[in-house]
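Make up an example, fold above all:
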Amino acid sequence: MPVFLNGLPVHVLVVHAVVVLVPLAVLATVTVAVWPAARRRYGWLAVAVTAAATASVPVATSSGEGLEHRLVPTELIRQHTHLGDQLLVFVAGLLVAGTALVWLDRRSRREGSGATSRLAMKSIVAALAVATVVLAAVSAVQVVRIGDSGARAAWGQTHYAAPQPEKADD
């Protein structure tokens, strides 16, 4: 993967997919986890968005590693890299939990099994819904932490001047 595109780091471009897709996946999976009607109607769409978010994470980390090797190593860059490397675990877990939730929910609606089996299936679906919400929350927090650490690494030494009021012509 190229490190630069027309002089701009590819990581800066690619990371926007993660910044958009992971929060969108979080919103979609939480919605289908807590709202059974949305799960029936939009469950597979939420899974598809989460799959796209999951796929975007390694692309962002790969482009970030290429850029990292061209920068002076600092503690802020190391922290950003460390946090970024953790995101795939959380978002992939969200994908697995969300997929299992939607699949089992669909399966339980199709099969007319006994009361004990229905109760067990409802319990499993409820546990998966809770796991999905927890993984969504962790993924959202991690994206914010990564973005903040990346901004600090890139802009931490930049100081802005307060705007000066314009003088009126007398």
